[in-house]
Amino acid sequence: MNRDTDVLVLGGAGVDTIVHVPQLPLPYADSYMIHDGIRTRAGQTGDFMSLGLAALGLLTHHLDFLGDDPEGDLVRALHRERGITLTAIPQPAGTKRAVNLVGPDGRRLSLYDSSRGHPDDRFPEAMVRELAGRSRHAHVSITQPCVHALPVLRETGVTISTDLHDWDGENPYHEPFALAADVVFVSAARLADPERTLRRIAERGRARAVVATAGAKGAYLLAGGELTPVPPAAPPAPVVDSNGAGDAFAAAFLFGFLRGEPPRRCARYGALAGAHACTVPSTRADAIDRETLLARAAAEPEEEAAPVTGP
């Protein structure tokens, strides 16, 4: 079968309602006046991955459940406007949604509505097999029901990536994703020992590269048995919101991965894209494009970093 799609993105479609708050954590009060407005826009992790990949020139196909509701219409419109192919399976429970509280420093607290789905939801196996067979790579969100698609994806021979987000390194829900993927991303925010977690993923699974993102501290890359610190990139403008930075990092890393770049160069692309995302207000869904990413990578060549030999 002709692999005419670069990346198949599974899951993670939905809408976020953005609320800028005076501080996080938010002290209890009867009410707050939100002078910046409260806005709802399309864009959860799968949407941001699709946008990031497409902006970098990768042909992207997004597959997920969507409701026949105003929120689903926002998601469909976003994909239509950005020229991203979307296959939406009807979801009677409605489109996934969340509320993001964003502090003045750009940090966020997300409240996810977990009622927009059913435990027995499944992507049609024949559909997954057909779409994966036409794709060079599949990025799998950890939203339900993506875990059930992993065996089918493996059978097609497509390479797989996943983002475990703020995994604590112990919750068993995340393990099937971590162990089935060739490239694994995870936030270091809740990891007591990031190196231990990354090495466990590599030893127990099939990952060629495992990355723990650490916000303004950069990231850690485990590849070829070596743990290497990835320096943070300087944001090109003031930081306003960290929402979508992890997805931007992952999309740019995969851009390099699919070009056959070495892991350190892929991670450098990720750092640059993540820094760019932090300068984009959460009410917008914009991503760094290929020309800008490559120009910044050329202007800020990758620093030589010694492997980490201990905690």
TrEMBL record:
Residue span, Carbohydrate kinase PfkB domain: 191-286
Keywords: Kinase, Transferase
Residue intervals passing through the bilayer: none
Top-level taxon in the UniProt lineage: Bacteria
Keyword Cytoplasm in record: no
Keyword Oxidoreductase: no
A GO MF label: kinase activity
The protein, known as: Adenosine kinase
